[in-house]
Amino acid sequence: MNGTPKIELRNxxxxxxxxxxxxxxxxxxxxxxxxxxxxxxxxxxxxxxxCILGLIRPDHGEILVDGADVTRMGARELERQRTKFGMLFxxxxxxxxxxxxxxxxxxxxxGRARDATRMRxxxxxxxxxxxxDSKILNLRPSELSGGMQKRVALARAIAPRxxxxxxxxPTTGLDPIRADxxxxxxxxxxEDLGVTALTITHDMASARKIAHRVAMLYDGRIIWQGPxxxxxxxxxxxxxQFVQGRADGPIR
Amino acid sequence: MTRxxxxxxxxxxxxxxxAIGLFATxxxxAIFAWRTLVRGLAPPYYPGRFLxxxxxxxxxxxPVVGMTAIFTGAALAQQVYTGGSRFNAQSTVPAIVTFGxxxxxxxxxxxxxxxxxxxxxxxxxxxxxxxxEQLDAMETxxxxxxxxxxxxxxxxxxxxxxxxxxxxxxxxLFGGYLLSIGKLxxxxxxxxxxxxxxxxxxxxxxxxxKAAVFGFFIALLGCYNGYATQGxxxxxxxxxxxxxxxxxxxxxxxDLLITVMVFT
Lengths: 252, 264
Known about the structure:
The complex is a heterodimer. By secondary structure, chain A is of the alpha/beta class. Chain A has one domain (7-244): P-loop containing nucleotide triphosphate hydrolases (Rossmann fold), CATH 3.40.50. Chain A contains 9 helices and 10 strands. Chain A has helices at residues 45-53, 75-81, 100-104, 106-109, 116-129, 146-158, 176-192, 204-210, 237-244, and strands spanning 7-16, 19-29, 34-38, 60-65, 68-69, 85-88, 164-168, 196-201, 213-218, 221-227. In chain A, helix 5 packs across helix 6 (146-158). The longest helix of chain A is centred in the C-terminal third of the chain and has 17 residues, at 176-192. Chain B contains 9 helices and no strands. Chain B is mostly helical. Helices cover 86% and strands 0% of the residues of chain B. Chain B has one domain (47-262). In chain B, 43% of the residues are buried. Chain A binds chain B through residues 50, 53, 55, 79, 82-83, 85-87, 89-91, 93-96, 106-107, 110-113, 156, 160, and chain B through 44, 46, 48-49, 129, 132-134, 136-144, 148.
C-alpha cells in the first residue's frame, strides 16, 4: 500500500518513573485498514492507544495522524483532532450517572442536554447498528449486562461517525458467542463504513478474524508484524509462544 | 561512625522528602485550581450541571447543617451560662452566643459538615470515573472534564456555602435563644435586644467570606483527589480519605489565619 498513512508512530517512547513502558514504537496504519496489536498484559498496549489519542504525552517520538503530529498539539487542536476518533474502552467506560441515550449521544452533545427528541432518535439508530433494541434508551448502564454495556459503548463510539476507531480488548469478559458478535460488528464497521481500526487484544481468535494485519508488542517494542495469515507461521519464537499460549518459551 | 552518619543523613533525607512531597502536592493542587478557573470561565458552559451541584451541595446539606447549628447554639448558651455563673456573668449569654456562632462556629461547623458530605462523595465519584476510564472516555468524546465535572462543583460550592452559613448562623442564634428562654429564664425581649446589639455587619460579612473560602476548598480538594486517583477500588478509598482529611485541615487552618488577620 502507498500514500499517506492514516496513523504513523515513529520511535514513540514513554516511561512512568523508572518503568519504561514503551521503548520506541514504529507502526503505520493505512486508511481503511484494520490492525490488531497483540501482547501480554502490561506490555503497553493501552498506553500506545492513549498516546495516539493525546490523553498521554509520550516522552519522545512522533505520532502522525493524517500527517499532523499529535505530540505537538495544544489543547484546542487536540480537541478538534478528536472528532476523527472513536474509542471502545475495555470496561465500556459508560457514564453511570446518565441514561443510555445520553451516553450514546454524548460525543455529539458534549454532555449538554439539548434537542432531546432528535438525540433519542440518533441514539436509537446507533443502538440498532450494534443490534440493540431502543427499549433500553432510558435505562442506566448499571441495569445492563456486561455484553450489552459493551455494545452501548460501541454505539457511543460510532455515533459521531469517526474515521478511526480504537478497540481496547473488545472481547474480554464476554462469552465466545457474544465475543463473536462484537467481532462481526467491528468487521462491518471496517468494511461498510470504511473506518480505520486499531484493536488491542490478547484474544487470538478475535485478532485473526478482525485484523488485516497483526503486530506484536513485547518489552516496549513492536517485535513482529505481518498479515494475519502469517500469525501461525511467523517464525518468531515470541509470537509462536504467545499465539499458542505456552508457559515455557522466551517470554517470561 | 560512618553508620551513625549514614543514619543521620537518612533521617534528614526523610524529613526533606516529606517537605518536598508536601510542596509538590501544594503545587499540583494550585495548578489544578488555576486550570479549573481558566477553563471553567471559558465556554462551553454547563448551567444544568451547575444547578445540579447547587442542589446537591446546598439544598441537600440543609437538614444536617440545620441540626448541627441548632444543637450547637443551644449547647453554647448552656456552657456560657454555667461558666459565666462562677463570676456572675450569666448575662453575657446572648452576646457570647452571637459572637461565637457568627464569627466562629457557624462557618466552621457548616464547612466541616459539608466537607464530610461533599468532599468525600465528590472524590469517590470522580475517582471511580478515573479508574473506570470514564474521564478518558469523556475527553475522547471531546468534553473537558474540567468544564463538565469540576468547574460546576467549584462554582456551586463557593456560592452555596455563604448562603448555608447565613442560614446556620440564624438557626444557631435561634437555638441559643430557645434554650435561654425555655431553660435559663431569660426575658425574650431583652435577650433579642442584646443579640441585636452585638450582631455586627462586619462579623456577618466575615462569616460569609470564610464560608466562600471553605466552599472553595471543599470542592477543590474533593475534585483534585478524585481526579488524581490511581489504582482501582483501593485507590478510590484512599482518595476519599485524603479528600476529607485535607479539607478538614485546610478549613481549620484557613479559619485560624483569617481570624487572626481580621480580628487583631
